[in-house]
Amino acid sequence: MRRRLLAILAALIATSAALVATPQAAAASPAVQFTNPLVNQRADSQIVKHTDGYYYFTATVPEYDRIVLRRATTLQGLSTAAETVIWRKHSSGVMGAHIWAPEIHFIDGKWYVYFAAGATDNVWAIRMYVLEGTGANPLTATWTEKGRITTAWDTFALDASTFVAGGVRYLIWAQSEPGIATNSNVYIARMSNPWTITGTPVRIATPTLDWEKRGYAVNEGPTVIQRNGRIFLTYSASATDANYCLGLLTASASANLLSASSWVKSPQPVFTSNASTGQYGPGHNSFTTSEDGQSDILVYHDRSYRDISGDPLNDPNRRTRVQKLYWNADGTPNFGIPVPDGATPVRLQSYNAAGSFVRHYNFRARIEANVTPLADAQFRIVTGLNGGGTVSLESTNFPGYFLRHKNYEVWVERNDGSATFKADASFFRRAGLASSTAVSFESQNFPGRYVRHSGADLFLQTATDATSRADATFTLD
Q1: Residue 210 is inside which H or E element, if any?
Q2: Closest to 185 (Cα-Cα) out of 267, 249, 241, 131
Q3: Distance separating alpha carbons of residues 407 and 397, to the nearest angstrom
Q4: For the chain, which terminal residue's Cβ has fewer other Cβ atoms within 10 angstroms, N or C?
């Protein structure tokens, strides 16, 4: 009996050791990929995912004269979805000009669209208004005007949005407050119904920092995403040209949201123009989720050029874009940079070094956790430079730079157009050597050698045992 017990114990120890030694796939939200821009000439973009399986899209049109909606079962499908006009500006009086920044929400069984509008006799008398829609599909719903949202002052007001926290519905918006020398500040108030606020509005953000006052002193376009016990409120700042950017307020989900002291402003913008990727003036965002519900998606507008002739409001070329929103280890959002036009990038997470991602560091490729800046760990998987069914991996923050092997080391270098570079930067995308649900990258010009990490650095090596096969396997995030 004693001998049998010892044998069982030995078997259990061996099994435990094997479990420890076996690489486990790191948890990651599956990669999501889109092609940008999603919709041309649509600004102040909002996309919501409804319980009926559809994404609903609305945005400001360049003519500022109507409210439009699209729907599709996929985010990319919104790009080509038919567009329906659900409301047009009045021919005279209020709601007769500057129809801006519509948002659609489903509240207590009905649809509501919040928007800003001027008047025919004063296009800058911008105020906030609400439409109510009855019907399952808002594109075919019956819409009625619920009128203006009355606030504490009869002043310039726009960009109404709404969210629920702790069972309470709030309205957030931007407004010019008498006695404050700014163009607009951000406010919050409780709501008694979807078109009425109650109680005293609270100012929670004022443009005081340099990057909030370029061109105009602006805090506007507030919207909320809730995660990790906190409420993150993004807002747009400065003029609507290349200076436009996103700022961030953060509050605890258990805090009194009607106290200005509950909201902490990040000292630096979280999303700005990027000359390397050719994206300028990113702002007025919203948030949605991927089709599988596992990834948060940032929706925003920007332009593909910096210099604008005349008033930016007369330039029609703001366009809707989408990209994955990442989360830092401390539970805060990481917006990264506005990615280049075309296919959105992914991160390559090590299969056997949980939480570590392929990145470039002084242009040497390696794996590392908590990569800063985020874009160092983002790569676009594009058609292989050398063709033949291969792929190449292009740096996000250094467009035109690719992962390539050199003396069996992996670097990120600029494509010099040579045959050697194209071959060195081209790989066959294979099912993961350690897991068929992951990926591995086999060299085109050195068959049998794979991109793998040895320690922290990446090399081009063979993968002949369990360890090397795991080293050469990555999950797309």
Answers
A1: none
A2: 249
A3: 25
A4: N
> Would residue 220 show up in a list of annotated catalytic residues for this protein?
yes
How does pLDDT run across 143-199, given as a tens digit for each residue?
999 999 999 999 999 999 999 999 999 999 999 999 999 999 999 999 999 999 999
Neighbours of 350 (CB within 10 A): 26
Q: Enter the DSSP assignment of 17.
A: H
The H or E element that residue 334 is part of is strand 333-334
Assess whether 442 carries a catalytic annotation: no
Nearest alpha-carbon partner for 76 in 391, 379, 288, 393: 288
> d(Cα 396, Cα 346) in Å, to the nearest integer?
9
**74-86 core/surface letters (b: 16 or more CB in 10 A; e: else):** ebbbbbebebeeb
Sheet holding 94-107, edge to edge: 94-107, 110-119, 122-134, 142-148
Q: 103, 177, 212, 220: which is the annotated catalytic residue?
A: 220
User: Which is the catalytic residue, given 44, 424, 442, 471?
Assistant: 44
Q: How many helices (H) and strands (E) does the chain have?
A: 3, 34
pLDDT tens for 59-84 read: 999 999 999 999 999 999 999 999 99
Q: What share of the chain is helix, strand, coil (3-state, %, to 5)?
A: 10, 50, 40
